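Task: complex structure prediction.
Instruction: return structure tokens for all chains below.
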Amino acid sequence: MGLFRLLFLLAIIAMVYWLWRRFIQAKHAAKPVKPAKPEPMVRCANCGVHLPREHALASGPQWFCSTAHLKQGPNQGGQ
Ligand SMILES: [Zn+2]
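Output:
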């Protein structure tokens, strides 16, 4: 009976060790990988340049790339 208990104990230790190693590996694998989420792009209503929405300036339904273009307003195509 003593041998069986020893083997049982060894099996548990081996399992705990295996789980611990897996846990450590998972921790190392879980590095802060930047999720490649697509950034919503908007078009400047004045010059037509595309830029990320978080860097764009909104004026009602329209977006602008800079305060200068925001002040100028949308390009009416009169160039
Ligand atoms: Zn612009």
